[in-house]
Amino acid sequence: MKKTTILLAVMMLYAGLNSSLYAQSDEPLAEQLTERFKTEPLNLGLLVRTNGVFSFEDDSFLNGRQFGLSNARLRFRGTLDQGFTYDMQMEFNRQVSVFDLNVGYKFSDRAHLIAGAQKPDIGLDLRPGPGNTALISRARLIGTMLNSREIGVSLQGDLGSLDYTVSMFNGYGLSTANDNNFMYLAKLGYTIQNESSRIYLGGNSVLNTSENESVGNTGMVSEEDRLIYGAFIDYDSDTFFGAIEFLETTFDRVGQQHDETITGFYVTAGYKVSERNEVLARWDHISYDVDDNRGSERVILGWNHYATSLVKLQLNFIAEFDDDDEHFGLAGTFQFQF
Questions:
Q1: What CATH number corresponds to the domain at position 136?
Q2: Tens of pLDDT along 105-126?
Q3: Among 24, 183, 196, 255, which is 20 to 30 Å from 176 by CA?
Q4: DSSP one-letter string for 19-42
Q5: Is residue 176 part of a domain?
């Protein structure tokens, strides 16, 4: 623990001493990339993330001790004549797979219709791409209860400070399986903005009527009519930032006589030390009502360093406490995102 604290302090000091140097220099090569590949009809995105994890004792926690490739993504999206849009995102890590593949029509800022494979607008920590998450990994409630992509149609838009999404999906993630039942989603968000801060709050709900649907990464299967509901608050200012999110799902679990309820919430608080450095902390809770009433708490201390506008380093110290044991480890990423 002492070695970890000393290492984190030295890295933060190094980044702080160099932040003024970075702030004084411009980035002409990054500007050239933006001018060439970030246009309205063709917006090209590229994400490369490498990672390393180190579990102090348990070889299974955080996948033990190893280096890996988190993401290798390429994205093409844009707006075309007469309001039509397109979006295609591919992942090249291990094997080529398609995450986003949709076309749409934008009536105005108030209404944008999207059809195809897309990210469902539920779960605050699911909204940003992996290169923009506050910590290295998303809050556990996301993977536990949600599929990262769904296939169907969505209508979303902004009504001033109010934004909305209504969607209808197959309900089986990116699988093309369908049982003639659908997943229905509704989300409302409201933004309070002033000169130095922004508060974004809202709620969301889902009813998935699909039968024998896998519940996130839990290995559980919902017989039918799975309900998901939640609420969130996100805060950002010149100095501080943070988020609170609650998400819960209730369903008839295949093989059980009673309903299963999974509850998750997290609290994130961060401080912008300088233009290039952030420190933050998160408390992450997951519990299962029927499955032996088991649950766990995870505490994460993080540091983000923005070396340039395109390159970021992250370091997380992770401690997890469940009913029977405790685990400790480190995780780090080095990423390029354009």
A1: 2.40.160
A2: 999 989 999 999 999 999 899 9
A3: 255
A4: HHHHHHS--HHHHHHHHHHB-SS-
A5: no
